[in-house]
Design goal:
The protein is built from nine helices and eight strands. By secondary structure, it is α/β, with parallel strands linked by helices. An eight-stranded parallel beta sheet has the order 1-2-3-4-5-6-7-8.
Protein backbone atom coordinates (compact mmCIF):
# COMPACT_ATOMS: atom_id res chain seq x y z
CA UNK A 1 0.00 0.00 0.00
CA UNK A 2 1.47 3.34 -1.12
CA UNK A 3 0.23 6.41 0.76
CA UNK A 4 0.66 10.13 0.07
CA UNK A 5 0.13 12.44 3.06
CA UNK A 6 -0.82 15.72 1.39
CA UNK A 7 -1.10 17.97 4.45
CA UNK A 8 0.78 17.79 7.75
CA UNK A 9 2.60 20.17 10.08
CA UNK A 10 5.47 18.00 11.27
CA UNK A 11 7.55 21.07 12.14
CA UNK A 12 5.10 22.08 14.88
CA UNK A 13 6.25 21.91 18.53
CA UNK A 14 3.93 18.96 19.24
CA UNK A 15 6.54 16.83 17.44
CA UNK A 16 9.66 18.26 19.04
CA UNK A 17 10.19 15.24 21.27
CA UNK A 18 9.82 12.40 18.74
CA UNK A 19 9.65 13.87 15.23
CA UNK A 20 12.38 11.69 13.72
CA UNK A 21 10.95 8.55 15.28
CA UNK A 22 7.49 9.24 13.89
CA UNK A 23 8.80 10.03 10.43
CA UNK A 24 10.81 6.81 10.39
CA UNK A 25 7.67 4.83 11.28
CA UNK A 26 5.71 6.66 8.56
CA UNK A 27 8.22 5.77 5.87
CA UNK A 28 8.36 2.16 7.09
CA UNK A 29 4.57 1.63 6.79
CA UNK A 30 4.21 2.85 3.22
CA UNK A 31 3.79 6.59 3.53
CA UNK A 32 5.90 7.42 0.51
CA UNK A 33 5.56 11.22 0.59
CA UNK A 34 4.55 13.92 3.07
CA UNK A 35 3.86 17.56 2.29
CA UNK A 36 4.77 19.73 5.25
CA UNK A 37 2.51 22.75 4.93
CA UNK A 38 3.64 26.25 5.87
CA UNK A 39 1.39 28.70 7.69
CA UNK A 40 3.71 31.66 8.39
CA UNK A 41 7.37 32.61 8.17
CA UNK A 42 8.72 30.36 10.95
CA UNK A 43 6.85 27.26 9.81
CA UNK A 44 7.76 27.81 6.16
CA UNK A 45 11.46 27.94 7.07
CA UNK A 46 11.15 24.86 9.28
CA UNK A 47 9.21 22.96 6.63
CA UNK A 48 11.87 23.64 4.03
CA UNK A 49 14.56 22.41 6.43
CA UNK A 50 12.61 19.19 6.98
CA UNK A 51 12.23 18.75 3.22
CA UNK A 52 15.95 19.29 2.73
CA UNK A 53 16.66 16.61 5.35
CA UNK A 54 14.25 13.96 4.00
CA UNK A 55 13.88 12.97 0.35
CA UNK A 56 10.28 11.90 0.99
CA UNK A 57 9.18 15.24 2.43
CA UNK A 58 8.20 18.24 0.36
CA UNK A 59 7.04 21.62 1.58
CA UNK A 60 4.62 24.40 0.78
CA UNK A 61 4.94 28.10 1.54
CA UNK A 62 2.16 30.47 2.49
CA UNK A 63 0.56 32.65 5.11
CA UNK A 64 -2.49 31.12 6.79
CA UNK A 65 -5.43 33.52 7.22
CA UNK A 66 -4.76 33.56 10.97
CA UNK A 67 -1.34 35.06 10.18
CA UNK A 68 -2.39 37.31 7.31
CA UNK A 69 -1.48 40.42 9.34
CA UNK A 70 2.17 39.29 9.17
CA UNK A 71 2.20 38.66 5.41
CA UNK A 72 5.59 39.13 3.76
CA UNK A 73 5.29 38.96 -0.03
CA UNK A 74 9.03 38.91 -0.74
CA UNK A 75 9.54 36.08 1.74
CA UNK A 76 6.89 33.93 0.04
CA UNK A 77 8.29 34.71 -3.40
CA UNK A 78 11.76 33.57 -2.26
CA UNK A 79 10.50 30.52 -0.39
CA UNK A 80 8.23 29.34 -3.18
CA UNK A 81 11.21 29.17 -5.55
CA UNK A 82 12.97 26.57 -3.38
CA UNK A 83 13.21 23.27 -5.28
CA UNK A 84 11.46 21.31 -2.51
CA UNK A 85 8.53 23.76 -2.30
CA UNK A 86 5.78 22.34 -4.47
CA UNK A 87 2.73 24.47 -3.58
CA UNK A 88 1.57 27.79 -2.20
CA UNK A 89 -0.39 27.24 0.97
CA UNK A 90 -2.02 27.00 3.16
CA UNK A 91 -3.78 30.19 2.18
CA UNK A 92 -7.39 31.29 2.28
CA UNK A 93 -9.99 32.65 4.64
CA UNK A 94 -11.06 31.78 8.18
CA UNK A 95 -14.20 33.63 9.20
CA UNK A 96 -14.72 31.34 12.19
CA UNK A 97 -11.90 32.70 14.34
CA UNK A 98 -11.17 35.96 12.50
CA UNK A 99 -7.66 36.18 13.97
CA UNK A 100 -6.82 38.61 11.19
CA UNK A 101 -9.31 41.24 9.96
CA UNK A 102 -11.41 39.93 7.09
CA UNK A 103 -10.31 42.59 4.63
CA UNK A 104 -6.64 41.73 5.29
CA UNK A 105 -7.36 38.00 4.93
CA UNK A 106 -9.00 38.63 1.56
CA UNK A 107 -6.19 40.87 0.27
CA UNK A 108 -3.46 38.45 1.36
CA UNK A 109 -5.33 35.48 -0.13
CA UNK A 110 -5.64 37.37 -3.41
CA UNK A 111 -1.94 38.26 -3.45
CA UNK A 112 -0.83 34.70 -2.76
CA UNK A 113 -3.05 33.32 -5.52
CA UNK A 114 -1.23 35.63 -7.92
CA UNK A 115 2.14 34.39 -6.64
CA UNK A 116 1.07 30.78 -7.24
CA UNK A 117 -0.02 31.63 -10.77
CA UNK A 118 3.18 33.50 -11.52
CA UNK A 119 5.26 30.53 -10.34
CA UNK A 120 2.94 27.87 -11.81
CA UNK A 121 2.40 26.22 -8.42
CA UNK A 122 -0.68 24.45 -6.99
CA UNK A 123 -2.70 26.20 -4.28
CA UNK A 124 -3.65 24.64 -0.92
CA UNK A 125 -6.76 26.41 0.38
CA UNK A 126 -7.82 26.85 3.99
CA UNK A 127 -11.56 27.58 4.02
CA UNK A 128 -13.47 27.82 7.27
CA UNK A 129 -16.91 29.42 7.33
CA UNK A 130 -15.97 31.29 4.15
CA UNK A 131 -16.96 28.98 1.29
CA UNK A 132 -18.45 31.51 -1.07
CA UNK A 133 -15.87 34.18 -0.32
CA UNK A 134 -12.99 31.75 -1.02
CA UNK A 135 -14.68 30.58 -4.18
CA UNK A 136 -15.30 34.11 -5.44
CA UNK A 137 -11.70 35.24 -4.92
CA UNK A 138 -10.32 32.12 -6.59
CA UNK A 139 -12.79 32.50 -9.45
CA UNK A 140 -11.32 35.90 -10.33
CA UNK A 141 -8.26 34.02 -11.57
CA UNK A 142 -9.46 30.41 -12.04
CA UNK A 143 -6.07 28.85 -11.20
CA UNK A 144 -5.76 25.37 -12.71
CA UNK A 145 -4.55 23.53 -9.60
CA UNK A 146 -6.45 24.14 -6.37
CA UNK A 147 -7.21 21.81 -3.47
CA UNK A 148 -9.67 22.66 -0.71
CA UNK A 149 -7.87 21.08 2.23
CA UNK A 150 -9.97 19.51 5.01
CA UNK A 151 -13.09 20.00 2.91
CA UNK A 152 -16.05 21.08 5.02
CA UNK A 153 -18.66 22.17 2.49
CA UNK A 154 -21.85 20.42 1.40
CA UNK A 155 -22.59 18.61 -1.86
CA UNK A 156 -23.71 21.82 -3.60
CA UNK A 157 -20.46 23.59 -2.78
CA UNK A 158 -18.47 20.48 -3.71
CA UNK A 159 -20.11 20.53 -7.14
CA UNK A 160 -19.06 24.16 -7.62
CA UNK A 161 -15.48 23.33 -6.67
CA UNK A 162 -15.37 20.27 -8.90
CA UNK A 163 -16.93 22.12 -11.83
CA UNK A 164 -13.91 24.44 -11.76
CA UNK A 165 -11.62 21.44 -12.14
CA UNK A 166 -10.37 21.75 -8.57
CA UNK A 167 -9.71 19.07 -5.96
CA UNK A 168 -10.98 18.15 -2.51
CA UNK A 169 -9.02 16.65 0.39
CA UNK A 170 -10.39 14.65 3.32
CA UNK A 171 -9.08 14.43 6.88
CA UNK A 172 -9.91 12.40 9.97
CA UNK A 173 -12.97 14.61 10.44
CA UNK A 174 -14.86 12.27 8.10
CA UNK A 175 -14.72 9.64 10.87
CA UNK A 176 -16.56 11.82 13.40
CA UNK A 177 -20.10 10.92 14.40
CA UNK A 178 -21.35 14.40 13.48
CA UNK A 179 -19.61 14.45 10.08
CA UNK A 180 -21.87 15.87 7.39
CA UNK A 181 -19.75 15.19 4.32
CA UNK A 182 -20.23 11.47 3.68
CA UNK A 183 -22.19 12.36 0.54
CA UNK A 184 -19.25 14.45 -0.66
CA UNK A 185 -16.91 11.50 -0.08
CA UNK A 186 -19.33 9.35 -2.06
CA UNK A 187 -19.84 11.76 -4.98
CA UNK A 188 -16.34 13.12 -5.66
CA UNK A 189 -14.86 11.70 -8.89
CA UNK A 190 -12.15 9.10 -8.47
CA UNK A 191 -9.43 11.36 -9.83
CA UNK A 192 -10.24 14.47 -7.81
CA UNK A 193 -9.59 13.77 -4.14
CA UNK A 194 -6.67 13.39 -1.73
CA UNK A 195 -6.19 12.25 1.86
CA UNK A 196 -4.45 14.09 4.68
CA UNK A 197 -4.24 14.25 8.46
CA UNK A 198 -3.57 17.95 9.15
CA UNK A 199 -1.31 16.61 11.92
CA UNK A 200 -1.09 17.37 14.79
CA UNK A 201 -4.80 18.27 14.56
CA UNK A 202 -8.03 16.43 13.70
CA UNK A 203 -7.16 12.96 14.94
CA UNK A 204 -9.63 10.44 13.55
CA UNK A 205 -11.73 8.01 15.53
CA UNK A 206 -10.53 5.96 17.44
CA UNK A 207 -7.79 8.43 18.43
CA UNK A 208 -9.87 11.58 18.56
CA UNK A 209 -8.60 14.02 21.17
CA UNK A 210 -5.01 12.80 20.93
CA UNK A 211 -2.15 14.24 18.94
CA UNK A 212 -2.54 13.33 15.29
CA UNK A 213 0.26 11.93 13.12
CA UNK A 214 0.41 10.73 9.50
CA UNK A 215 0.28 7.18 10.89
CA UNK A 216 -3.45 7.77 11.39
CA UNK A 217 -4.06 8.06 7.64
CA UNK A 218 -5.09 4.41 7.77
CA UNK A 219 -8.34 5.42 9.49
CA UNK A 220 -9.12 8.03 6.83
CA UNK A 221 -8.45 5.41 4.16
CA UNK A 222 -10.67 2.85 5.91
CA UNK A 223 -13.56 5.32 6.24
CA UNK A 224 -13.39 6.30 2.57
CA UNK A 225 -13.22 2.61 1.69
CA UNK A 226 -16.39 1.98 3.70
CA UNK A 227 -18.27 4.94 2.18
CA UNK A 228 -17.26 4.33 -1.44
CA UNK A 229 -17.48 0.53 -1.33
CA UNK A 230 -13.93 -0.14 -2.49
CA UNK A 231 -10.93 -1.69 -0.75
CA UNK A 232 -8.52 0.29 1.42
CA UNK A 233 -5.73 -0.60 -1.01
CA UNK A 234 -7.73 0.95 -3.83
CA UNK A 235 -8.31 4.14 -1.82
CA UNK A 236 -4.61 4.40 -1.02
CA UNK A 237 -3.52 3.84 -4.61
CA UNK A 238 -6.13 6.19 -6.11
CA UNK A 239 -5.22 9.02 -3.76
CA UNK A 240 -1.51 8.35 -4.18
CA UNK A 241 -1.74 8.68 -7.95
CA UNK A 242 -3.98 11.75 -7.68
CA UNK A 243 -1.49 13.50 -5.40
CA UNK A 244 1.45 12.59 -7.60
CA UNK A 245 -0.30 13.97 -10.67
CA UNK A 246 -1.24 17.16 -8.83
CA UNK A 247 1.86 17.95 -6.77
CA UNK A 248 4.74 16.02 -8.38
CA UNK A 249 3.83 15.46 -12.04
CA UNK A 250 7.44 15.65 -13.20
CA UNK A 251 8.90 13.29 -10.62
CA UNK A 252 10.18 10.04 -12.11
CA UNK A 253 8.87 7.65 -9.47
Amino acid sequence: MRIFETHAHMDFPQFKRDRDEILKKCFNVGIEFIINVGVEKKSCKAGIKLAEKHNQIYSSAGFHPHDAKEFDKEFILRSARHPKVIAVGEIGLDFYRNLSPRDIQERVFDEQIKIALDLNLPIIVHDRDAHEQCFDILSKYTPPKVVFHCFSGDEVFAEKVLDKGWHISFTGSITYRNSSIENVVRMVPEDRFFIETDSPYLSPVPNRGKRNTPLNLRYVIEKISEIRGITPNQVAEITFQNAMNFFLPDLDY
